[in-house]
Amino acid sequence: MTEQIPEAVVWCLAVGLFAVTVLLVRERGISARQRRRNAELGDGLRARDAELRHLVSARLPALETATHQQVPAVGLLDIRLTDTEFAKCLDAVVERFAGAVEHARLRADQSAKAALKASMRSIQALANEQQVSIAGMQDRHDNSGVLSDLLEIDHANAQFGRRAQAIAVLCGSWPGRQRATSALVEVVRGATSRIRDYRRIRINGEVDIAVRSRAVEPVVLAVAELLDNAARHSQPGTTVEVTVQPVHNGACVVIDDAGVGMDGQAAAHAAELLAGTHAVDITRLGDPPRFGFAVIGALTERYGFSVSVDTLSPYGGVRAVMFLPTALLTHLDAASHAPVPSAEPPVPTSAAAPAHPRAQTHSPGTAPTADPAAPAPDPRPDAAPAPDPAPDPEPVEATTPGGLPKRRRRSPRQPAPHPVPADDVGGRSAEENARRMGAFARGTRSGRAARHTLHDDEGNSHE
């Protein structure tokens, strides 16, 4: 009996040892699984923390600096979080933030544009008043020194008005008054008269194409911005070549400069602005802001022409090409027969050009070279500096119902059908222009005085 007791104890100890071993193995497995679970949870927490830091440091700033509202290029940092509730919450935060940024950007842009638009309207009104005063002084004075100073002031005022006009257009305003249908070459000359370095511009090409009245002022403004950009980014001693040429579906104005050119990034940015497909944020145009390409893009989007600057100039700079479609063009023969509204009474036939010296500056189709920016006061280089003092009396062909003689008005001289190449634009000095305008003003006054005297004599004879 006593021998069976140790055997039972041994079996009990064996069973207990087995049970303890099973429990230890089970506990070790549970502990391993728990450690793995804790490690996974820890990795998940660290991944979420890193994702939050990535959201704050990368994804949201990318939305702040984005030019246009679009799907952000910066995504999740850890792809294991894709399609999780945490990732969906982060995407919702990004979308809300993007909406808030776009709304704030639109409000800021609209406020800035409204303020600039109102300011530019006031500045344009002041510039127009100053233009009227300058024109009046040009009518009253015929001294060459005074007229030379007035030409310089007039030129500065033209640049001042163009700047205000360009900013107003970018802010949603219209370019301004509607001009008469003008020859394309004269439109380019009118644009030349609005930039600072007008003497460096050389215009080539003879075409019988005119720009329709609704597109004259926008084209003048766009060409002026291109010319100003070409002149500012090239050496002062170089010239800017402008070629006007007809193409199959319209006409092109090609501007070649010898400047520094543009790299790929600058060219891509310029192409985006010139396309006019996106609304321009004026607060992101640099410091100081560069309005030129943005203004041209706004005009191209409104009026249907196109501008590109992605070609290398033969002189090592940039070649800008403006394409005007057929819808904006007409022929000079058709344009010459179209009636042109005028706010002034007809001038006497003794003047072969308008008696108002500034009338040519405001109409790019009639000879903008009279403007100080384009120092040729007459589109024909061989024109005399002063017209005849008085016309010969015209033959009487009919009588009025009251019995008074009625004369047939002599038709004004029509311009040449082909514009003269403006190779010598800017060749004359301001003093020579002043002398020519002074002679022109003296001849005009003499002709008017002679005409009034003739009318008085006729009235006295019929009394």
Q: What is the terminal separation in angstroms?
A: 175 Å
Q: In sequence order, what are the helices and strands, one letter per element? A: HHHEHEEHEEHHEEEHHEEH
SS class: alpha+beta
| Helix count, DSSP H or I runs of 4 or more residues | 10
Spatial strand order of the main sheet? 2-4-5-7-6
Mean pLDDT: 75
Low-confidence stretches: 339-397, 402-426, 459-463
Q: Based on Cα principal axes, name the global outline.
A: rod-shaped
Strand portion: 5-15%
Radius of gyration: 39 Å
Estimate the helix proportion, in percent. 40-55%
Describe the protein in words.
The protein is of the alpha+beta class and about 475 residues long. About 50% of the residues lie in helices and about 10% in strands. It contains ten helices and ten strands. The strands form three sheets. It has a five-stranded mixed beta sheet. Helix 2 packs antiparallel against helix 3 (about 145-170). It is rod-shaped, with a radius of gyration of 39 Å.
